[in-house]
Amino acid sequence: MAFKALYAILALAVSFGAVNGAVVKRVTCPDGNTVNDAACCPLFAIRDDIQTNLFDGGECGEEVHESLRLTFHDAIGIGANGGGGADGSIIIFDTIETAFHANNGIDEIVEKQKPFIARNNITAGDFIQFAGAIGVSNCPGAPQLNFHLGRPSATAAAPDLTVPEPFDTIDSILARFQDAFSTVGGFTPAEVVALLVSHTIAASDHIDPTIQGVPFDSTPEVFDSQLFLEVQLRGTLFPGTGGNQGEVESPLRGEMRLQSDSNLARDSRTACEWQSFVNNQPKIQSAFKAAMRKMAVLGHDINSMADCSDLIPTPKPLTKTTITFPAGLSNADIEQACATTPFPTLASDPGPATSVAPVPGS
Ligand code: HEM
Ligand SMILES: *[C@@H]1O[C@H](CO)[C@@H](O)[C@H](O)[C@H]1NC(C)=O
């Protein structure tokens, strides 16, 4: 009650400022912070809780990687009629959804996030996307993602088989994304590639259950375009269809490649788009930001949500601004797939071939 009354008074004190010529409304919160919308005020304390207690003071590590994966697995749980989406169902109905094959391992971050939702006044759907956007901001080179607030709690679990698997065909992956985004005009193959920029800060714990934290690129702690180069190196499909189904062996020791990433980099519908991300930091940032903005509100009308994007910290830039081939590899190792544009010529790291270290804490 007292809280509500305070907001009412503050609403009278709304100030106007001009940024880049556009007039933007600013609201002052009870704690002195200024925001775009009064509904965003309680998020400052939640952000502090997340950074301190979920991300070890602001790291780009295992929990950030898992939290980003969770934004996707919650959102893509949507039917063609628009039911479900980014609604927190993966946490609210976790006993059902974490049992789905494609959600293998998701239970770990679900268990870690649950107490944060319990002790803060925020829905599971909002929390998942908020934590994901904050987590990404801890990774040097990342864009500042958007965050919109206002996802009601899920009332039903997502059906099984909405989350793509690495051994799915490109036809079925592109169709699933098209279907998931059908109520908002669909999702192009280029947008699918843009979302996979996420795999620059990612590793696998479960494809090969004998090894943990196996990164998808040589730099899982930074948001760079190294993934797009390394997935284009010649590799071999893991033999057999057993435990390692969906894995392609990378020529880089210690690194794992998803069969789906490998195929997207080589399919005629997506290969040139994939290659266009190589050494193109502005593009990986802008394309990922735009695709995430769309994914994070799946199942909701963005116009009826509060834009709290100014709560997301500005990430640090990369210190290494041009990507390079890992030692021992060069342009000669590229499996060219884009028919119209040659692969960019890049330098190789000096010295003998090294292996990629696992992500700590996995
Ligand atoms: C074709 C679509 C996709 C497929 C088939 C796919 C598949 C996978 C698989 C199999 C893993 C490894 C899980 C494990 O073994 O522990 C993984 C990890 C991950 N995925 Fe995806 N993914 C896709 C799209 C996305 C999207 C759209 C996002 C986010 C926007 C995302 C974010 C991540 C992250 C951050 C990880 C690393 C998790 C960690 O390091 O703990 N993925 N993905
Ligand atoms: C919890 O959040 C909702 C929606 O953001 C708000 O209407 C409500 O007043 C909040 N409750 C408390 C106790 O702060």
Q: What does the model show?
A:
This protein is mainly α and 362 residues long. It has a single domain, classed as Orthogonal Bundle (Peroxidase, domain 1). 34% of the residues lie in helices and 8% in strands. The strands form 4 sheets. Strands 1-2-3 form a 3-stranded antiparallel β-sheet, with no helix packed on it. The protein has a 3-stranded antiparallel β-sheet with strand order 7-8-9. Helix 9 (189-195) packs across helix 13. The protein is globular and about 60 Å long. 2-acetamido-2-deoxy-beta-D-glucopyranose (NAG) binds at residues 3, 39, 121. Protoporphyrin IX containing FE is lined by residues 62, 65-66, 68-69, 71-72, 105, 164-166, 173, 195-196, 198-199, 201-207, 258, 260.
Task: Give me a quick take on this structure.
It contains 13 helices and 10 strands. By secondary structure, the protein is mainly α.
Helices and strands in order, then pairings?
Blueprint: H1 2-12, E1 15-19, E2 22-28, E3 34-35, H2 43-53, H3 62-75, H4 89-92, H5 94-97, H6 106-119, H7 124-137, E4 148-149, H8 170-180, H9 189-195, E5 203-204, E6 214-215, H10 226-230, E7 236-237, E8 247-249, E9 256-258, H11 259-264, H12 271-276, H13 281-295, E10 306-307
Antiparallel strand pairs: 1-2, 2-3, 4-10, 5-6, 7-8, 8-9
The structure holds protoporphyrin IX containing FE and 2-acetamido-2-deoxy-beta-D-glucopyranose.
Active site: 73 (proton acceptor)
Disulfide bonds: 29-41, 40-308, 60-139, 272-338
Site (Transition state stabilizer): 69
Strand content: 5-15%
Q: Show unreliable segments.
A: 1-21
Cα Rg: 21 Å
Percentage of residues assigned to helices: 25-40%
Going by CATH, the architecture would be Orthogonal Bundle
Question: Ions, cofactors, ligands: which are bound?
Answer: protoporphyrin IX containing FE, 2-acetamido-2-deoxy-beta-D-glucopyranose
SSE topology string: HEEEHHHHHHEHHEEHEEEHHHE
In terms of structural class, how would the helical and strand content be classed? mainly alpha
CATH topology: Peroxidase, domain 1
State the major sheet: 3 strands, antiparallel
* Mean pLDDT across residues: 92
Number of strands: 10
Termini separation: 44 Å
Number of structural units classed as domains: 1
